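So, who can interpret the following?
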Amino acid sequence: GGGGGGGSRDDQRGGGGGGGNWDRRNGGRRNYDGDEDWTRPLPRDDRIERELFSQGHTGINFEKYEDIPVEATGEDAAKHINSFDECSLTEIIRVNIELAHYTGPTPVQKHAIPIILAKRDLMACAQTGSGKTAAFLVPILNQVFEDGPPKNVPQQPHRYSSRPKQYPLALILSPTRELACQIYEEACKFAYRSRVRPCVVYGGADPMQQMKDLDRGCHLLVATPGRLVDMMERGKVSLELVRYLVLDEADRMLDMGFEPDVRCLVGHPTMPAKGSRQTLMFSATFPEAIQMLAREFLVDSVMLSVGILGAANSDVKQAIYQVTQFDKRNKLLEILGEEGSDRVMVFVEKKKTADFLAAFISQKGIKTTSIHGDRYQRQREEALADFRRGTCPVIVATAVAARGLDIKDVRHVVNYDLPQSVDEYVHRVGRTGRVGNLGKASSFYDSEANGALARPLIKILSESQQEVPEWLENEAKYGGGGGGGGGGGFGGGGGAKSFNSDSWGSSSGGGGGGGGFSQPVAEEEDWG
């Protein structure tokens, strides 16, 4: 069902007193009672608490995080914190941090939380799995609780309108449905026992269900760009009261062709101008197109870089094998045999390869499932559920279908087909070894197809203290059509990156310019 995780969870948003309480504050002006004290926690609810917090949090080994370099640049950037107690957080947030088993802040949280609490705009480069979602949700929700209900809510067209327009105070834009739902789940945790109600809207799900959910009130909205534009056109959402705007995985939004939608939203006549809203951008990589957006959308900002910019995670042991197209299948079986086949994610370039390979591995006695753009939403969700539960310990995925998926505890990523761009390689490798856990990544390098990646791969391997095979050095020296590797830099497509070929199933070169975006955008809106 739409509306993020179906009806059963509706009454836990923002948590608090179960369905009955929400009925007394369901949407519209009644949602903003100007005299209410939003810092005061509502009563606990054991059932909701169990549902929200039973997942627990990864047993993070923070010690090994201490040596991650973090650099903050900007006038008077706020001093970093070493524990959550160092910044004066509201009781609601403090208790929810404990319930979520966050023992201490990760490097990105140490720096981002005080910067955001100081009301500064932020451009943060942090690798996947660094704890960045909590890094922006904790300070934003804390400020929303402290600010309390807004005084200047516009009148609804009809006083007793049954379908009121919502005026969220915080807006978080996310490239995909999966990432949006993941942020929303986290927001529900931190908003538990508060008067703040998070909502999520995304493409590829029933808009009526999502509208029904919005009607019950929405103070913090997580959205994919296309669906939000749609909700605004339907008169369901207004941006007039947005005080906090977050662009999460901004590089990915551009890669997926969402730049026009993002510009339409940020530049919308109802969106408060920069300076009268606080804007935060998060991105795993920092290409020129993202730097341009940051210059346009942020004012007097702090730049935060965690770890090496554009480097792969050093918690991941990366191995590159020289394999021809024809030997890949056998090499994969050999690796699954040696390394074990538990929670392995295999990336391929083409949709048909995904199905073929999943069938091939299954025939060899290892249960395998696959996700790609041609599978129905329901099939994709089943495949993901099978992988998460361990029913199918191996999943084969195309890059587009896997964008933004938060799949916990992937032990091993295999690049059966290497992507055209080294940024995409970093994204994929970032799926394992998340937040202090060790992971593995194995990649099949075919000289015929991957020559342009030799040099950038060597750079990534060296930066994350990995072994560089001698044959790869030779490839970079003698073969391998020049270093490029960035998928032809920025083609058309509104400045979006043009490494279409890995994701969109053509096996040709770097995907010239923006022309290749028409199909994936449609496919991705369906997914995200």
